[in-house]
Every structure is written in structure tokens, then in C-alpha cells.
């Protein structure tokens, strides 16, 4: 009942073109990646508790206010990051309205509705992070959830660009798609190891002496080596995937996206190496987090290109369905 009423209400909106839908979907990717980077700025500037409560900034106030124990700069940085949540929410809401109004297929609708749902989940995780005093594992979960949202937003962008009345067509053999899954698992392991490095590293998000942030009590060098080894595995699998795709033949879209993924991962590795030998400067932490979102988006785009939805003739459709 409510869904039908929502659809009837949305019908009063102008019909968005495919180009408009793709622009909105791109804005969703950028907003999800952007708030991940600004979250890193909050952490490296020790502004994680600039607003010490949630959902309010201070007890009784949703906005910053003068406080002798909380510097104004920290309040501004943390509150600005919270305000960006509204931009993320707006983009998520717009993409839902666009695809519902355009009567897109169920797959697109599911991905679109995951955007506002994920935003609400992220807000809850953020509240838990603040209320727990920035416990290292809550910060890790918060970052990993952001990376998941970037992945889903990239898939949404790809799905929106495909025809609703087409059929799924595998662009490469199934074993190579499974190799891509394996590389994705290595990427996930790299991300998890990276959050553990953050949990034991020097940027806790707050430097209050009377309320020190609990850190992961593991030797950071050990965690750095684990993170680096997972990255090597990730890159090795991508190189192997590249040779496999070259052997069976790949279209221009797949080739271009594979090159982007490998180049992005190599650049990310270089940033990590410089971080390690320069005692983790704050600016490089922000760049490294932004690079992580780029790696996630590039890998998701590559994954989407390996199996696409295309408009083809009836006989060809039957052949594609039988070979899938």
C-alpha cells in the first residue's frame, strides 16, 4: 500500500533521462567516497570528539558551542563532517526518486534503495563510534562500511547504464570471473588489515589526556607487514587476471578498467610505502583513504564489466542464456 502510494507521488516528478540518472548515480559515488576522506581528516586532526555526543553535538545542542575542553577547530571539523551526511542523504534520496520515476527494473531499484539504507546504517555506526569514545574497532567498522557503500554505489552506476529489457551476457569465461572474486577477497583482506594498522597507529582521532582513546595493542610493524602482504596478493591476482583476460580476449571497456585498477593499486602501494618511512604524516593518511575508495570503485567497475546486460536479438538471447 505504502509503496504504491509512493510510486503515485513520484509520478508527479519530471521523467529523468538516462543521462540525468547516471549523473545522480555518479554524485552518489563521489559523496560516499568524499565522506570517507573527510572522516580521515576528522581522525588525523584529532577532531573525532569535537562533537562529544550523538546525534546532538553537545548535550542540548545540535550545533557546536563554546566549551573550555573542546577546541573550536575540532568542533568545526567534526560538525562539518556531520553536515556532509546531509549531502550523502540527498544524493541517495535523489537516486531513489530517479529510478522509481523512470520505472527501472527491480535490480536497479534494489541497489538504489541500498543507498539511503546504508546511509542510515552508517549514521548509527558513527553514533556508536562517538559514544564509545572512538574505540579502535568501531572506527574500523565505520571505515569498512564506507568502503562497502562505495562498492555498491559503483555497481549502481553500472546497472543504471544497462538496458532494462536486455539480457545478461558473460563477457569472459566463468573461471576468470571467479578469479576476480578472489582478487576482491584479497582486496577486502587488505582493507581489514589496513584498519587494524589504523587501530594501532598514531592517529587515534582524539588526544584528550583525561580520556585517552583505547588503541589496538598489537605491534604496528606486524600489522603493517600483514597489510603489505595482503596488498601484494591483491596486486598479484590482478596481474594474473590481466594475463588471463589477454589470453581469452577482452573488450576495450574491460581492458581500460583493468589498467585503471592496476595503476590505482600501484599508486596506493606507493603512498603506503612513503607513509611508512615518513612516520605516517596526516596528509598522507587522508590521501591513502581517498586512494582506498578509488581502488574499491575501480575494482567494482571492473567486476561489473565482466558480466553486462545488453539488448540483443531473440535468437542471440536464447544462445546467451544457454551459455551463461
From TrEMBL:
GO terms assigned for molecular function: metal ion binding; oxidoreductase activity
- Any keyword rRNA-binding? no
What Pfam families does the database record attribute to this sequence?
COX15-CtaA
* Bilayer topology annotation: Multi-pass membrane protein
Q: Where in the cell is it found?
A: Membrane
Question: According to its UniProt record, where is this protein mainly located?
Answer: membrane
Pathway note: Porphyrin-containing compound metabolism
InterPro entries given for it? COX15/CtaA_fam, COX15/CtaA_HemeA_synthase
Q: Which GO terms describe its biological process?
A: heme A biosynthetic process
PANTHER family hit by this protein: HEME A SYNTHASE
Q: What is this protein called?
A: Heme A synthase
Give the species this sequence originates from: Nocardia vermiculata
